[in-house]
Amino acid sequence: MPKDISQDQPTTRRYSAEEKAAAVRMVRTLRAELGTTQGTVKRVAEQLGYGTESVRTWVKQADVDDGHTPGVTTDEAARMLALEQENRELRRANEILKRAASFFGAELDRQHKR
C-alpha cells in the first residue's frame, strides 16, 4: 500500500500580519498576567493552533521592532533587501554599459582605420 507523503511533510501556512500581531499581543498579555515568560509562547501557539516556533519568532521580532531588544528591525531588513536588489540591478546595468561601450569603441576604431 503506498504511503501518504503529505502526512510526513509539514504544511506551510502563511499567516496574516493581523494574525501574527494578535498572537504577539496574547503572549505579552499572558506574560503580564502570569509574571513569567515560561511556557507562554507554547500555550498561545497551542490555543491558536499555530506552530510554537512561528509564534516565538514573531514575539522576538516584535520585541526588536518595538525597541525592547537589540537587533535588525523588520523595516531595516526590508530596506536592506531593497538596497541589495538595487545594487544587483545597477551592477548588471553597468556591465551592459561597459560591453556596449567596448563594442561601439571597437566599431569606431574600425571605421577610423578605413
Automatic annotation (TrEMBL):
InterPro entries: Homeodomain-like_sf (IPR009057), Transposase_8 (IPR002514), WH-like_DNA-bd_sf (IPR036388). Coiled coil: none annotated. Gene3D superfamilies: Winged helix-like DNA-binding domain superfamily/Winged helix DNA-binding domain. SUPFAM superfamilies: Homeodomain-like. Residues 1-20 are annotated as: Disordered. This is Transposase.
